[in-house]
Amino acid sequence: MRNRVVAATCCGLLFVLGAGTSASAGAASRAGDFSADLLPLNKDTTGTVDLHQTGSNLEVHVSVDGLDDGTHLAHIHGMRQAEAECPALSADANMDGRVDFAEGLPDYGPVQLTLSRGEAGTMLDYVRAFRHLDSGDGIASLGSLDQYAIVIHGVDLEGDGVVDNPDVDGNGAGEPPGNEISMPALCGVIE
Ligand SMILES: [Cu+2]
């Protein structure tokens, strides 16, 4: 039950932040292989994401090891027709030593596509297929993938070894600096 509450809180926030960006992209047929090297943001580990796009089909392979145990959301982030980047530590506006979800937004942009489906643990290794990416049907009309970035979320802030608390500050707000679920762990630009 606790996990369900956590997920609802988190995804509500992400949905709001991702709203208003669903401009339609061209319906041109696209094909290609892309990849993102996931580099440390708030967690000192690495990973890779391979993406294979054929027309309106997209297959994604997420591979990460060395995460904190617990929940790990994974998204394609970005602003259409703009270059999504991964934030530098200089984006840490409140100087708490981490680039939280909100602090990173100007660089990686809002959520465009959720890759995760409730995965948890220290290692992620899954392949997932998506469809209709160029059809403008409201799922995602992403266009060329190399304008986006991938963010893997979930960092243990309390030191209990588990990513499970969206409100470490305990004020009921679930604000990004104290949100283990939304805290970005790794980021990689799609190339
Ligand atoms: Cu995300």
Strand count, sense and closure of the main sheet? 8 strands, antiparallel
Order of helices and strands: HEEEEEHEEEEE
Bound molecules: copper (II) ion
Helices, by number, come to 2
Total domain count: 1
CATH architecture: Sandwich
Radius of gyration from the alpha-carbon trace, in angstroms: 16 Å
The proportion of residues in beta strands is 25-35%
CATH class: Mainly Beta
Which residues form runs of ≥5 with pLDDT under 50? 1-28
Number of strands: 10
Strand order of the largest sheet: 6-5-8-10-1-2-3-7
Shape category: globular
Gap from first CA to last CA: 39 Å
- Tell me the CATH topology: Immunoglobulin-like
Mean pLDDT equals: 83
- Strand-pairing-aware structural class: alpha+beta
